[in-house]
Amino acid sequence: MTARASGAERGSAVAEFAMVAGLVVALFLGVVQVALVQHTRALVIDAAAEGARLAARADRGPDDGVARTRELITESLSARYADDVHASTTTRAGLPVVEVTVRAPLPVVGLLGPTGTMVVAGHALEEGR
After folding, report:
1. Number of other residues whose CB lies within 10 A of the CB of residue 102
2. For residue range 77-99, what is the model confidence (pLDDT) as tens digits?
3. DSSP per residue over 3-65, as a string?
């Protein structure tokens, strides 16, 4: 065999690179999208929990928790993620609990594009009033 590659293999490295590069880019974008979804979900959960903690204070009410949750989500993501926020008082294990529920779009293509919906809730033990 000579130092030159056989004629059947000539030019295959370019095609192979193009196919592998496309696959690597698609895989990278998929990982970035999953990270974006997890980041968005974590921010919304944190805002709901913070709103529930504020609403559970003795000198505050559920409306204060909703306002704080909306403020945090708007500052960290976008106002469209803070459209559907509700607070209620429930009982868990015999204890009064404030629950802040957020229904927000789940980013499918970046922060834009078609979306699904995620529902998250934050809870806090209500202080004595």
Report:
1. 25
2. 989 899 999 999 999 999 999 99
3. SSPPGGGTTHHHHHHHHHHHHHHHHHHHHHHHHHHHHHHHHHHHHHHHHHHHHTSTT--HHHH
Using the predicted structure, report yes or no on whether residue 56 has a pLDDT greater than 70.
Answer: yes
Q: Please say if the pLDDT value at position 72 is more than 60.
A: yes
Residue 81 burial class via C-beta count within 10 angstroms: exposed 0-12, middle 13-18, buried 19 and up? buried
DSSP labels, 56-93: TSTT--HHHHHHHHHHHHHHHT-GGGGSEEEEEEEEET
pLDDT at 122 > cutoff 80: yes
Token code pair at residue 36: 């974006």
CB 82: neighbour CB atoms within 10 A?
21
